[in-house]
Amino acid sequence: MNLRGIVAVSGRPGLFKLIGQNKVGYILESLDEQKLKVIANMTNTKLASLEDITVYGLEDEIKLVDIFTKITAKGTTPDLKADTTVLRTYFNEVAPNHDDEKVYASDMKKIIGWYNIIKDLPLFTEDTPDTPGTDAEVKLSEEKTAADKKQKTATGKASSAKASTKTSAPAKKASMTSKKGV
């Protein structure tokens, strides 16, 4: 199953194929019948590659590819408008060790919906290539890694700024008390 280049876009329903990149953002093509081309702005749009998505598990995280494989083996999917208990029962069959508290019904619906979108596409039966992917896919992966590092660095700077504020506050307080005493 080749999910390389297939992304979910924050704020947009459905799935998209990553075609390329320009100065403004990523060029995407919807996987539905309309084949609508969209440019996703790099600064305010989040893309999640289906290849990298995992589901919370009790011991280890479960890859989306593995869930799709089990859904294919099962052959049928429940209606997306079905009751939550029906979805949960089905999901326990296709992802047996998922964490019931962290995986919500909306997540299950989204995964089943994604499966229904891509099950008839030719890439669904292809093997995943060992090559790193297109330039846009490699760039997306690099930017995600850089953003994660930047967030960790910003978190570290914020905690050190709080620490410096804490040390400077008592000094000011001490100088104020000495003025009152004089």
UniProtKB/TrEMBL annotation:
Region (Disordered): 126-182
Domain DUF6852: 53-118
Record-linked InterPro entries: BVU_3817-like_C_sf, BVU_3817_N_sf, DUF5606, DUF6852
Basic and acidic residues compositional bias, start-end: 136-151
Gene3D superfamilies cross-referenced by the UniProt entry: 1.10.10.1650, 2.30.30.730
DUF5606 domain residues: 3-50
Pfam families xrefs: DUF5606 (PF18347), DUF6852 (PF21186)
Domain of life: Bacteria
Biased composition (Low complexity): 153-182
Annotated protein name in UniProt: Uncharacterized protein
Lineage, opening ranks: Bacteria, Pseudomonadati, Bacteroidota, Sphingobacteriia, Sphingobacteriales
